[in-house]
């Protein structure tokens, strides 16, 4: 089996993603914990790069990825903080959106269950995969736009076995892509976004909910940048806030915690949670210019190499032409000398 590295939220930070890939084995499989796009400056480039990695990649959908689908479907308004226009205006937009909507919401293999946000304490791994599969089937259907138009909202916020299809699917999406805190009986809190120290007597981080039925597998998730890196025997939280100036994290998955490997890349601060809208836009423009400058520098370096190669090639051709002219001149002189010699005889 090839090595598997699970990676936290990319959020359109392509430069950091490229740097991280450079630190990983070139043929390793990659598990991406959702939120591939949005808020970072290179959503389009990031998405195209992930797709280009082909079968190496297993990606689950996050809330930002579902938001992209909803905006593309025309059933949800874009937010002022979105950085999705490059995808929505791309010439290959339809192919990109089609790829995104065909990705799973949960992936279970080798004793590891990956979702973007969390799972309710009443669900075991098999039930998570089954519930996610129900939503995936709808997203992959011809009626996916109508389906998404009904999926946004906070109710129901608690699991009950008798939920109708629409309520069950909405609750599944909210748990797998939005949840941070919940109660022991599986009621989701949508307000608290701080780290684990914001827990109360009744609200706990979902992975600390008593009686959680996925405690027999290793959970892999992202979504919660305020939480930071979590590496427990049965829990891997990988959103370390790349877009906020934190790190982009990869962890090599292993059957035992001792076999894991942690790799992190320091990320430039693209977003400031305390900034005004104008400051955010200026920050984004600065980040885009910085990345453009980096790419331009790389292109210039390649162009210099190209110019040097062309100069050498031109010099070689000139030398060859000069040698050919000398040889031709020598040959004419030799012929003339032979003619003169024959006349003298």
UniProtKB/TrEMBL annotation:
<protein>
    <recommendedName>
        <fullName>Bis(5'-nucleosyl)-tetraphosphatase, symmetrical</fullName>
        <ecNumber>3.6.1.41</ecNumber>
    </recommendedName>
</protein>
<comment type="similarity">
    <text>Belongs to the Ap4A hydrolase family.</text>
</comment>
<dbReference type="InterPro" id="IPR004843">
    <property type="entry name" value="Calcineurin-like_PHP"/>
</dbReference>
<comment type="function">
    <text>Hydrolyzes diadenosine 5',5'''-P1,P4-tetraphosphate to yield ADP.</text>
</comment>
<dbReference type="Pfam" id="PF00149">
    <property type="entry name" value="Metallophos"/>
</dbReference>
<keyword id="KW-0378">Hydrolase</keyword>
<feature type="domain" description="Calcineurin-like phosphoesterase">
    <location>
        <begin position="4"/>
        <end position="118"/>
    </location>
</feature>
<dbReference type="GO" id="GO:0008803">
    <property type="term" value="F:bis(5'-nucleosyl)-tetraphosphatase (symmetrical) activity"/>
</dbReference>
<feature type="region of interest" description="Disordered">
    <location>
        <begin position="316"/>
        <end position="345"/>
    </location>
</feature>
<dbReference type="InterPro" id="IPR004617">
    <property type="entry name" value="ApaH"/>
</dbReference>
<dbReference type="InterPro" id="IPR029052">
    <property type="entry name" value="Metallo-depent_PP-like"/>
</dbReference>
């Amino acid at each position: 089996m090839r090595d598997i590295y699970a990676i936290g939220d990319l959020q359109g930070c392509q430069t950091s993603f490229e740097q991280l890939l450079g630190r990983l084995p070139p043929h390793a499989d990659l598990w991406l914990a959702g939120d591939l796009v949005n808020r970072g400056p290179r959503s389009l480039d990031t998405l195209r790069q992930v797709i280009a990695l082909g079968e190496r990649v297993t990606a689950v959908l996050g809330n930002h990825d579902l938001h992209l689908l909803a905006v593309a479907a025309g059933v949800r308004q874009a937010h002022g903080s979105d950085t999705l226009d490059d995808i929505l205006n791309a010439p290959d937009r339809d192919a990109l959106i089609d790829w995104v909507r065909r990705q799973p919401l949960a992936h279970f293999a080798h004793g590891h269950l990956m979702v973007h946000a969390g799972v309710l304490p009443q669900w075991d791994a098999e039930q998570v995969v089954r519930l996610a599969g129900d939503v995936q089937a709808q997203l992959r259907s011809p009626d996916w736009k109508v389906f998404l138009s009904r999926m946004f909202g906070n109710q129901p916020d608690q699991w009950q076995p008798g939920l109708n299809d629409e309520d069950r699917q909405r609750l599944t999406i909210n748990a797998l892509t939005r949840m941070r805190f919940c109660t022991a009986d599986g009621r989701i809190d949508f307000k608290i976004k701080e780290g684990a120290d914001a827990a109360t007597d009744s609200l706990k981080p979902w992975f600390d909910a008593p009686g959680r039925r996925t405690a027999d597998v290793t959970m892999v998730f992202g979504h919660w940048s305020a939480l930071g890196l979590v590496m427990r025997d049965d829990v891997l939280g990988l959103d370390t806030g790349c877009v906020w100036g934190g790190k982009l994290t990869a962890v090599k998955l292993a059957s035992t915690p001792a076999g894991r490997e942690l790799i992190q890349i320091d990320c430039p601060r693209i977003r400031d949670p305390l900034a005004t809208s104008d400051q955010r836009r200026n920050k984004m423009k600065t980040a885009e210019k910085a990345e453009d400058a980096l790419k331009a520098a790389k292109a210039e370096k390649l162009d210099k190499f190209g110019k040097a190669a062309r100069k050498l090639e031109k010099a070689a051709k000139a030398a060859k032409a000069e040698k050919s002219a000398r040889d031709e001149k020598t040959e004419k002189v030799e012929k003339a000398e032979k003619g003169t010699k024959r006349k003298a005889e």
